[in-house]
Amino acid sequence: MIARSEKQDLDDEAALQLDAKGNLRHLLTLKGLDQSLLTEILDDAEHYLTEPGSLPARSQSLAGRTIANLFFEPSTRTRASFDLAGKRLGADVLNLDVNTSSRKKGESILDTIYTLEAMQVDVMVVRDASAGVPAYIARNVLDHVSILNAGEADTSHPTQGLLDLLTIRQHKGDFENLTVAIVGDIRHSRVAMSACHGLATLGVGELRLISPPALAPDSESVPGASIVDNLDEGLDGADVVMALRIQRERIGNLDGIPGIDEYFANYGISQERLKIAAPDVIIMHPGPMNRGIEIESVVADGSNSVVTQQVTNGVAVRMAVLDRVGQTMASR
Ligand code: CP
After folding, report:
1. pTM
2. Whose CA is nearest to atom 1 of ligand 1?
3. Relative to the CA of 151, which ligand 1 atom is closest?
4. Which residue, judged by its Cα, is nearest atom 3 of ligand 1?
5. Is the CB of 77 under 6 A from ligand 1?
6. Which residues, including other chains, have CB under 8 Å from residue 275's CB and lie 6 or more apart?
């Protein structure tokens, strides 16, 4: 939406995220955030985890603050977890129903944002199908307002990246000796892009991106990763396997994209295909899952699956991020 090179936009977004004191003000991308900041956020998130069956962690650190969830694309996990995270930190949370909002009557995104600012909203959580929207909003809000990217086109989903890093760290500890395999529609996946950025910053040993050629990323967008089109080659010895769905809503021309049966036969994560991975491999999926297409049900629900743990971690990570930008506001 802004006529500049993609690299320039990404570099600008990375710089936009920190205030003059180096504190996190917006979260737009994991690219450009350093290892110590990512590690601190993961450490903070650990404090918001409690045992299954016990009461969830709560604090009043955001009491008096107001958070607005603006989801211009569908969501179950991200929207619900930002809602819970804000409430568990004591904030007022507004879930704007975009289908009945005035954007449907032609109001511009910035007029919607200015309207919410006038109601003293402090944090806006934004999901949008167009690249550049969260950064565009961040450049135009009042100095005290924070923008959190909740999923942007095929470019970035930073809180998903953080919850994926946390889940891997819980099971595997250090990243240096790990082989991580991400399988599926890498080209159109904001989840894959944020995982690549975060894993690279935390020093992952080996990152393999496995997909049919038509769904492979441009190599310059994933420096340091190997691009592989053979599933067995990609899964061989992998410690972590992350399956992704085909993002049909982002693919204009389906030529070259395998049909369901062909896709599952060649790229589906099944018990049989996983025999080549490390015995203690963990299986991840960001959701929503298409069982029988990118992942076999018995794998999704099996003992190596950490899919529900990813969801639990999503609330904790979003609490950590909200608390951090709240501290930045309070320090102004
Ligand atoms: N992983 C993820 O972003 O899921 P939702 O689309 O349900 O938020």
Report:
1. 0.94
2. 286
3. 3
4. 78
5. yes
6. none
What would the two tokens of residue 158 be? 């930073």
CA 267 to chain centre: 22
CA of 245 from ligand 1 middle (Å) equals 11
CA atoms within 13 A on the CB side of 59: 14
DSSP 187: T
pLDDT (0 to 100) of residue 6:
54
Probe residue for ligand 1, chosen from 71, 76, 84, 311 as the CB with the greatest number of ligand atoms within 8 Å = 76
Atom of ligand 1 nearest to the CA of 157: 3
Q: Output the six-digit token pair for 70.
A: 């603006």
Q: Is 153 left (phi over 0), alpha (psi -120 to 50) or beta?
A: left
Give the pairing type, strands 240-243 and 282-284.
parallel
Is 69 close to ligand 1, i.e. is its CB under 6 Å away? Answer: no
- pLDDT tens digits for 220-275? 999 999 999 999 999 999 999 999 998 777 776 667 778 889 999 999 999 999 99
pLDDT band at 1; cut points 50, 70, 90: very low
- Are the beta carbons of 137 and 81 closer than 8 angstroms? no
Report how far apart, in Å, the C-alpha atoms of 89 and of each of 21, 72, 82, 86 are: 24, 24, 11, 5
Q: How far is CA 228 from the centre of its chain?
A: 22
Task: Kindly tell me if the per-residue pLDDT of 3 is higher than 70.
Answer: no
194 lines ligand 1 (CB under 6 A): no
Q: 67 by DSSP, 3-state: which?
A: strand
The predicted-structure confidence for 4-43, as pLDDT tens digits, reads as follows: 455 556 667 878 999 999 999 999 999 999 999 999 999 9
Residue nearest to ligand 1 atom 5, measured at CA: 75
**Across 57-66, average pLDDT:** 98
> Please, what is the end-to-end C-alpha distance for the chain in angstroms?
31
Distance 286 CA to ligand 1 centre (A): 7
Closest ligand 1 atom, residue 127 Cα: 8
pLDDT digits (tens, 9 = 90+) for 92-112: 999 998 877 777 778 899 999
